Amino acid sequence: MAQYTETVPSIDWQFIPGDTATIIGYHCHAVEGEYGGRKWKAYYTNSIPLSYGPWKLCGAHGVILKAFDEGNNFVFEAEGITKRPQAIVRYDWKYRTMTKEEWQDFEQNIYDKAGAFVKGTGARVLIMDNSEKGFHQIEDSWKAYYNPLEKPSFQGRRPVPRMSSTMPTR
Questions:
Q1: How far apart are CA 17 and CA 129, in angstroms?
Q2: Count of helix runs (H) and strand runs (E) in the chain
């Protein structure tokens, strides 16, 4: 297990007049802001005057019940709210402390070497296909598409690959 510490971000949410929605029965207002290299749109409710939200998206004038990034790569939406008290459990595991940049490098490495990572966990993963056998195992060289919630700073790091909707011509 690994952990790093960071401060809660301060997002400069901009109110969008006239843009409202009803989410799990709450009347919500829209705001837009930027965080982690992405533009976000969020819907918050004044009915719950707490400035919390999903992940690190907080700081609106009420609880954020829905948020999504400009490309709809990530969507957070509340499915319900309960009012029963529940203990917060903190497991006493041994953590390796690292910087956020070290974590981002580690995470990207997992995606770049996804096949070797999966095999290293001891898991047996089969990919179903149309071959005579009907499946194949993951190769060590298999890479997974890396699209983190927070885009890494590009100082000495390679940019996140983009998906393209056009096919190359021959």
A1: 50
A2: 2, 9
CB 22 within 8 A of CB 36: no
What's the rounded Cα separation, in Å, for the pair 60 and 42? 9
Whole-prediction pTM: 0.76
pLDDT at 93 over 80: yes
How far is residue 16's CA from residue 25's CA, in Å, rounded to a whole number?
20
Domain boundaries, the chain: 9-77, 98-160
From the list 50, 52, 59, the residue with the least C-alpha distance to 12 is 59
Residue written as tokens 């056009």?
Answer: 166
How high does pLDDT run on average in the chain?
A: 86
Sign of the CA dihedral with 148 first, then 154, 155, and 157 last: positive
Tell whether the model's pLDDT for residue 167 goes beyond 70: no
